Amino acid sequence: MKRLAELQPGKAGSIFTSDLSVNEFLLVREVGFRPLGLVLGSSIYHVGLQIGRWGKNQELNVLSQAMYHARELAMTRMEAEADALGADGIVGVRLDVEMKEFGADIAEFIAIGTAVKADPGAGGGGVSNWRNNKRQPFTSDLSGQDFWTLIRAGYAPLGMVMGSCVYHIAHQRMGSVLGNIGRNVEIEQFTQALYDARELAMSRMQAEAEELHAEGIVGVQLRQHSHTWGSHTTEFFAIGTAVRPLREDHVIERPTMVLSLDA
Questions:
Q1: Which H or E run contains 180?
Q2: Mind listing the pLDDT tens digit for each residue in 92-142?
Q3: Do 156 and 243 meet the contact criterion of CB atoms below 8 Å apart?
Q4: Beta strands in 100-215, from DSSP E residues, in sequence order
Q5: Rounded distance, CA 134 to CA 76, Å?
Q6: Which regions in the chain score pLDDT beneath 70?
Q7: Residue 138, exposed/middle/buried by CB under 10 A (0-12, 13-18, 19+)?
């Protein structure tokens, strides 16, 4: 709280902190947003144990819930710091997981980004309140360059949305392993398991965007991590930035093509 108090805008001697690159900082400023300070949230979380059946494809719900909740705690704490600064949003957010030496099932979930405040007239003056429908500062993992392009195109970020699915992929039976030796053949149970797991993560991310009344999600990443669970248990994590147009009648202007005709 002391660090945040020193970052309050207008306070004598206060300076902002930011993890934006020089180019990103200049582009964020050019589009009408002032960096206030670096904000972060952290959660050191014990991820519970759940055993999957050796020969069955199945989601491990206990682990899915743990991985989601731990990230949500980190994000919420980062948003609380931005709120304390009076920020309109957070740009350049990074959401990382670091496994710790405290134990095989203990990980730190870290959310960090740069809190920003909109200048009057930012985004062409079409928005008076940049916070989302949950009255929280918007969050975005877009780069400074992509954030500049988004605002200039007439769109506003609403928040980072995510979905997680930890899935146990069935082991092959010995007969199947021996029967596939020397053959080119699809392993259908593996294909189906990975498809199902990705679908669950994507659908959960889309559900979060719907809660924000978003038009869509940009910059989607679909990551896969095995963490410390072994080769047959993996997490599929989908994340992106939910967006909406600045005005209901917004139309993206197409660049004008100029043809040069020789005499």
A1: none
A2: 999 988 876 666 678 889 999 999 999 988 877 667 789 999 899 999 999
A3: yes
A4: 106-118, 138-139, 155-168
A5: 12
A6: 1-14, 48-55, 100-104, 125-126, 171-187, 227-231, 249-263
A7: buried
Joined together, the tokens standing for residue 109 give 């979930």
Element (H, E) at 237: strand 233-245
Interacting residues of 57 by C-beta distance below 8 A, sequence separation 6+? 167, 168, 169, 170, 189, 192, 193, 196
Strand order in the sheet with 58-59: 58-59, 155-168, 233-245, 216-225
Tokens for 202? 């994507």
What distances in angstroms separate CA 77 from CA 71, 83, 95, 111, 142, one per listed residue? Answer: 10, 10, 12, 8, 20
pTM over 0.85? The answer is no
* CA distance between the termini of the chain: 70
- Rounded to an integer, what distance in angstroms lies between the CA atom of residue 189 and that of residue 53? 14
**Phi and psi at residue 216, to the nearest 5°:** -175, -175
CB-CB contact of 66 with 9 (8 Å): no
Question: Please, which residues have CB within 8 angstroms of residue 210's CB and are 6 or more apart in sequence?
Answer: none
Closest CA to 107 of 198, 225, 1, 200: 225
Dist. CA 44–CA 97, nearest whole Å: 10
What is the fold, at CATH topology level, of the domain defined by 15-48+55-172+185-245?
Answer: Translation Initiation Factor IF3 (3.30.110)
Count of Cβ atoms closer than 10 Å to residue 177 Cβ: 11
